[in-house]
Amino acid sequence: MRLAAVDIGSNAIRLQITNVTHYDGNFTFKKLEYLRFPLRLGMDVFHSQKISDKNRRKFIKLMKAFKLLIDLYEVDDYMVCATSAMRESSNGREIVEEVKEDIGLKINIIDGNQEAELINMALGTYIDEKSYLHIDVGGGSTELNIYSKRQKIASKSFKIGSVRALDDNIPLSVWKSMNKFIAEKIGEKTKIISIGTGGNINKIFELSNPRKNKRYLDMEKIKEIQSYLESFSYEDRINKLNLNPDRADVIIPASKIYLAAMTAAGSQKMIVPDVGLKDGLMQVLYAKNKNKKPL
Fold it and tell me: Are residues 136 and 40 in the same domain?
């Protein structure tokens, strides 16, 4: 079985094609194709509330390319989900309809709670009896989920994202709202562990030179990497640290969002599992198709 997931984010758009195999009662996911295209829809939307004509044309071309790959790989089923930038743009639904009519690709615009639920589906193996704060930082929004004894007890999406933060485009009231939510929902829990998802925390983790099989960072290490990144200019982060241009500018604002949430929760440790929305989409697709007989 072959499945495809497309994540239309505010900072970039991702396609993953996965092959699912069954053997001896078990199943495995093997990545066949992964593409990340740096189309920053959020920069348009968070300033002018609409996707520009230039980025609209590029987006249509990208969707055509993705649809060709989905067809070439003979995918059995796919899901395409758009998040903060597309759902806040005044012309987002119009563009979605154009893609459906002209290309035959269906795009689902999902809200923050749906986005959080999909990401959570990929976190199952990391949640146990302890208390956890899941922090997913995107370009346009941050999704927070709080777990206790394997149960999700609270969830909320905030308009706090790495692209929004580039121009200090986040009102103080929104920051206060996030901190209040964390304080009220966590309460007296003294040892809460954070789980960080999103491209920026994955890159911060990579820059930390982690030991083999270690998938966590402590707060001091995140601060250390943040200071290290701030010691370079934008150009040097690209040329010396080999960061993509669309990562080099947002990684520092993103680190501040992760640290702000951890500080509000009193959390000193973060697990970085390297999963995201596309992985949750794969779980949904597999559950939907696992009992279908091959043609």
Answer: no
Local structure of residue 40 (DSSP, 8 states): -
CB 1 within 8 A of CB 17: no
Note the pTM of the prediction, 2 decimals: 0.89
* Position 208, amino acid: S
pLDDT in tens, 242-286: 999 999 999 999 999 999 999 999 999 999 998 889 999 999 999
CA–CA gap between residue 119 and residue 109 (Å, rounded): 15
How far is the C-alpha of 125 from the C-alpha of 273, rounded, in Å?
A: 10
Same domain, yes or no: 148 and 165: yes
CATH number, position 252: 3.30.420.150
Give the integer Cα–Cα distance in Å for 116 and 119. Answer: 5
Residues 99 and 170 reside in one and the same domain: no
Query: Does any domain span residue 117?
Result: no
Task: Calculate the alpha carbon distances from 122 to 75, 127, 195, 282 in Å.
Answer: 21, 10, 12, 9
The model's pLDDT over 166-217, given as tens digits with 9 standing for 90+, comes to 877 799 999 999 999 999 998 766 689 999 999 999 999 999 988 777 889 9
